């Protein structure tokens, strides 16, 4: 219960009552400021997390672009290697056919070099 006598009580001091109301209002403001400060801290944390997520997204997008570029370069190199191997196989087959060794095995190639 309140220790301050009601305003219509014979011994009530209006200054004491005003002081009590002022202290109660200050306390309510301080409580509300504490709540707002807590909410602001949470909002700042959320904003930092959003910035980090944006930075991560940008970094991942750059890495993905680099990986796609590397993939394209590797695919092109693989096609060039495949074409070079096909050309070498064609030349080798032509050389074997030209030497008359089409039916022979590797030993015939070596024998052809000796003879």
Automatic annotation (TrEMBL):
Basic and acidic residues biased stretches: 41-57
Region ranges (Disordered): 35-57
Organism domain of life: Bacteria
InterPro entries listed in its UniProt record: DUF4164 (IPR025310)
A Pfam family reported for this protein in Swiss-Prot or TrEMBL: DUF4164
Protein name: DUF4164 family protein
Source organism phylogeny: Bacteria, Pseudomonadati, Pseudomonadota, Alphaproteobacteria, Maricaulales
